[in-house]
User: Fold Nitroreductase from Shewanella woodyi.
Amino acid sequence: MEVFQAIKQRRAVKHYHADAEMPAEDFDKIMSAVILSPTSYNIQHWRFVRVTDKEQRNKVKSAAWGQAQVADASELVILCADINAWNDRPERYVINSPQETQDMLLPMMDAFYNGKEQIQRDEAMRSCGIAAQTMMLAAKELGYDTCPMVGFDREELARLIRLPQGYVIAMMIAIGTAEKSAHPRGGQLPLNEVLAENYF
Ligand SMILES: Cc1cc2nc3c(=O)[nH]c(=O)nc-3n(C[C@H](O)[C@H](O)[C@H](O)COP(=O)(O)O)c2cc1C
Assistant:
């Protein structure tokens, strides 16, 4: 599938065949693509929780106010992020770079994030946002539909998945075989309303 076609065909699908299973190689393929997504300084803040256990899925569904796709989709991935990833053995993020690049980037990374909590969190969320789009497009390429979701009780979900201190939940994504198509697009803003040139 062409990238433009996948972008156009990706829709937030809410109804899935509950008995459809995703072959393990498809899930691996999607996730292997996801971790190639770009992140600032290659920090890769994302940490994913794949919810495979049926009972846990049903608990997550309750935390998501009963949204059917949480339990019915073949896969459910909760996109979390380590806010302190910038400071967790950062040499790993540049290990394959030439030594002079490493020597330059590591102090830059520290100066960029140290003591700046808002930026640390913004970056973690940014990384997950980009990973989410990769996940949805990769799934589309393999013939699956997806639904990105933030409609859940954050504290309850954090408790259910035992979210570690210093981590955030960005969203979750249901991936599966559509039972019903998405509604027609809700109403896209025209390009000339959202695209400025040089200045607002
Ligand atoms: C961050 C995010 C959170 C969302 N949360 C939910 C959700 O909890 N439940 C739901 O049914 N759809 C959810 N959606 C889907 C949006 O409603 C949908 O993407 C939007 O209406 C545009 O439709 P489209 O994705 O089909 O183009 C969410 C989308 C995003 C990007």
In short: The chain has a mean pLDDT of 98.
